[in-house]
Design goal:
Helix content: 40-55%
CATH superfamily of one domain: Bacterial extracellular solute-binding protein, family 7
Radius of gyration: 24 Å
Shape: globular
CATH architecture of one domain: 3-Layer(aba) Sandwich
Strand content: 15-25%
Number of helices: 14
CATH class of one domain: Alpha Beta
Order of helices and strands: EHEHEHEHHEEEHEHEHHEEHHEHHH
Number of strands: 12
CATH topology of one domain: D-Maltodextrin-Binding Protein, domain 2
Structural class: alpha/beta
């Protein structure tokens, strides 16, 4: 819901004072309107992802100088997390903060902005494709086909997500078969193809389900969120590295009419706030995730690298999944084709130019490193 508030213009007061005559001069007062937009995130207030939503809102509010104010509510305050897109499109909410893969049920192509290996692109490269390789226009095309009148901004490249939390470490591909496993989006199809029994539970239901034995294993996202959700209280094994969601980003949604009703200056403020928040989020994620990774270790969690055969099995399952989805959905194939063209060019450049940072890390901190 949009609220309008009157704000006194300092410039108008000064102008009025300057032109007034006589001892009892009364300044003329010009007024401007504050547009307040009500947003909702798809996470609880204590989650770092909700914090990112507040960070974006603060950047907009600070730059707008009272002309625009975004207020952010946590998941469930107005609608359930997975109903955010419809609520924003209908105007029940003025905007929202989530991930585009949550709309997978509306059109499976939307999950391609996050699910799967993205032809070897990391999250930041997926964003590069989105803004410079045609992805942004494809999102708009998909939303138009769904009659969802929204303005979408993707931002915030997420660190690569773990394979997940397991009661027993995964040593081979066969260990995945028969597991009752939580994931969402196209990862549902990938893990199903690997033989798991998938349950796409909302974030807040995962740990209780693990605790009660309703599921055997689960993935959510990152060390900070996983720690707050309480995974370490019920499971002590976490498998790191996975291709199921290795290139995901966040999405900021605006109701179409509300966004289009803003003037050009406020739209520019939103655009630049998205870019600033994207950079800030990626820096904060490195800081906080690395801290919480240490805290999880202190809590007795054992971390293991996902075995390469399991990663290769994910790629094979992904190939099966996208072949099937491409045959069912022309927009799905259109998005994939666009990603592939960009990934082949940008990936070759990145892989050829990027040095092995692990070599330098091991030189200073690995076994045999010189003690200073």
């Amino acid at each position: 819901m949009t609220e309008k508030k009157t704000v006194t213009s300092r410039r108008g007061m000064l102008k009025g004072a300057a032109v007034a005559t006589g001892a009892m001069a009364v300044p003329m007062v010009a007024t401007a309107q504050t547009t307040t937009l009500r947003f909702q995130s798809t996470w609880p207030a204590k989650d770092i992802f909700h914090e990112y939503a507040n960070d974006f809102a603060k950047k907009v509010n600070d730059m707008a100088g009272g002309r625009l104010k975004i207020e952010v509510l946590p998941a469930g305050a107005v609608v359930p997390a997975f109903q955010l897109l419809e609520a924003v499109a209908k105007g029940t909410l003025d905007g929202g903060h989530g991930v585009i893969a949550y709309h997978y049920g509306k059109n499976s192509a939307l999950a391609l902005w996050g699910s799967g290996p993205a032809f070897g692109m990391d999250p930041n490269m997926v964003l590069a494709w989105h803004y410079y390789g045609g992805g942004k226009d494809l999102v708009a095309e998909i939303y138009k086909s769904l009659n969802m009148d929204v303005q979408s901004f993707l931002y915030g490249p997420m660190p690569c997500q773990p394979l997940g939390w397991f009661k027993k470490p995964v040593a081979k591909v066969e260990d995945m078969k028969g597991l009752k496993f939580r994931t969402v989006g196209l990862a549902v199809d990938v893990f199903t193809a690997m033989g798991t029994a998938v349950n796409p539970l909302p974030g807040g239901e995962i740990v209780p389900a693990l605790d009660r034995g309703l599921i055997d294993a689960a993935e959510f996202n990152n060390a900070s969120s996983d720690r707050v959700l309480g995974f370490a209280d019920v499971v002590k094994n976490c498998m790191l590295q996975s291709f199921h969601q290795s290139g995901e980003q966040f999405e900021i949604l605006f109701n179409g009419p509300k966004y289009n009703g803003l003037n050009a200056e406020l739209k520019a403020i939103i655009d630049y706030a998205v870019q600033a928040a994207s950079a800030d989020m990626s820096w904060k994620a490195i800081h906080r995730n690395s801290e919480d990774y240490i805290e999880l270790k202190k809590a007795g969690v054992k971390f293991y690298k996902t075995p390469d055969p399991v990663l290769r099995a994910q790629l094979a399952a992904w190939d099966t999944t996208i072949a099937k989805k491409s045959g069912e959905n022309a927009l799905f194939k259109k998005v994939l084709d666009s990603q592939k063209v960009f990934a082949q060019r940008a990936g070759q450049w990145q892989n050829d130019y990027t040095v092995d940072f692990k070599m330098a890390y091991n030189h200073y901190f690995g076994r045999g490193a010189k003690k200073s």
